[in-house]
Amino acid sequence: MTVTDSVRSALEVDKVESHLNPPGSFDVTDHPVPTGREEIWRFTPLKRLRGLHADAEFNRSAIKASWNTPDGARVQGVTGDEARSLRGISGLVPNTRFAARVLAEVPSTLLVDVPAEVELAEPLVVQLDGHDVTNTEAGHVVMRFGAHSKAIVVVNHTGSASVAAVVEIVVGDGADVTVVSIQDWADDAVHLSHHQALVGRDATYKHAAISFGGDVVRMDANVAYDGPGGSAELLGLYFADEGQHIEHRIFADHNAPRTKSNAIYKGALQGDKAHTVWVGNVLIRKVAEGIETYEENRNLILTDGCHADSIPNLEIETGEIAGAGHASATARFDDTQLFYLQSRGISEKESQRLVVHGFFNDLIRKVGVPSIEERLLATVEAELAKNVLKEVQ
């Protein structure tokens, strides 16, 4: 029995349907084109997706891909039987039309393979640079990490593109894996993506979703477990400017006992009609005794005209858990913090800048990749420079 088969068999035994994660199917015809009235689509501006959620043609890619290959790793594009064998390797059964279309229609897969016992000496960085926003396209990426391996993979998105993507991640037993996805697109880009991870027995998995650029960015970051003792840390950082829509959704499916998940997402908004959405869902199945989970979302409103939606959810099917909780807050600047700084001779604008950096700093440090941390601090500074912080009325 394969890893995927074992996960699916376990889920068949414990048939619990999450209201934010409807039943899936590989058959595209089982997924009608969303109208926006569906629960999982009601926040997303469908008219701005260039048909990626529906039936836009998946053309030949205009995204230039490049990567480094640290010793011990393999990165390559695969096609044919090998590509088909990787579809659903994470246990993913698509519950959206775009994900089902990607798995059914995209002929190739970008495979990142780190064998068992291998420890990468440096981060493996995949650079994806778009060059044509009018070209609708799709991609499938698989990251496979063997038992007791250790690796950091960074996927960096830049340029102009309209892309739907499915990323599947398999973390072997006892492995220690960090995956960082940076959405630093040009202002006109559209990015619709689903990340699905399967975490092995006693494995450690960290996923960081970082979104700054793009016209519309929506990312689903899901995790399930292939044995007891697995741990998942789901981190997110986003900064929306005028007119941008940035949407992050997570789903932690505790389908094995003594597993852990911890989600922390933070975002800032500035400019008219900047809109962010965070939806967090944790499902604790009957078999998942002794689990621990916590999800947290914080949003900082910097100017008038912004809107942040934040919806945490816990669905619990057993009372035998070690701990579960969630927190959500959306607010403007803390007047006490600003007063403290200004009372020490710091200007209002500089005080606001320091508060924003302090808001993000602890989360940035959790990413655990020094070069990425430095870049994020610089990017936050650049975002603040786009729109001079105004006094909050």
UniProtKB/TrEMBL annotation:
Pfam families per the UniProt record, alphabetical: SUFBD_core (PF01458)
Superkingdom as given in the UniProt entry: Bacteria
Coiled-coil annotated spans: none
GO biological process, one term: iron-sulfur cluster assembly
Residue span(s) of domain SUF system FeS cluster assembly SufBD core: 136-359
Entries under SUPFAM superfamilies matching the protein: Stabilizer of iron transporter SufD
NCBIfam families reported for this sequence: sufD (TIGR01981)
Recorded family membership: Belongs to the iron-sulfur cluster assembly SufBD family.
The protein's name in its UniProt record: Fe-S cluster assembly protein SufD
Source organism: Nocardioides piscis
